[in-house]
Amino acid sequence: GAVVSQHPSRVICKSGTSVKIECRSLDFQATTMFWYRQFPKQSLMLMATSNEGSKATYEQGVEKDKFLINHASLTLSTLTVTSAHPEDSSFYICSARDRGLHYGYTFGSGTRLTVV
Amino acid sequence: GQNIDQPTEMTATEGAIVQINCTYQTSGFNGLFWYQQHAGEAPTFLSYNVLDGLEEKGRFSSFLSRSKGYSYLLLKELQMKDSASYLCAVKDDKIIFGKGTRLHILP
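^ inputs. structure came back:
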């Protein structure tokens, strides 16, 4: 079945540094990927929609200059958290649209980011 | 705007049945998902409804009424491992999640 690989699973970084998170579709081509953020005991909040070969579409309130999204190929989207601060500490999850699935979406395993 | 409502928490007993409700008001609708999420893990797919009616899959069933903007997830023969959060999500051109229902199972 469709598999989305997300790396790293956990990362700790210092305040002010940047962190890159990768999301790969392993056995299908994903023209569209989605990035979510989840704070403790809260639901997943959609941050942005990543489209291969074009600019990402950000949800209201999400800073596009802080959360850089690149979707340069049909199997890879990256989210870079720039100049990270402790309040950016969260669980980040990607998902990809797989047209082979009747419901179309599969999720990565998530990345736990801790900014110290 | 988009609004998806579900109870924040529920408690049930091992072996029993529990129903988790979800109501939604969204600008578009192309299907409704239920996901299970254990603490610290990514959500896992449980069910997908796009037409009205009941979809049964083992111990889990999901119901949808598009005219009422309503769905429920029914869990039967509850097991301790079912203690988790259950997320209702609506698909338009993207998937929007509700806040989730934390289900506690008592022995």
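The mean pLDDT of chain B is 94. Residues 33 and 48 of chain B are 5 Å apart (CA to CA).
thumbs up if we can close this ticket
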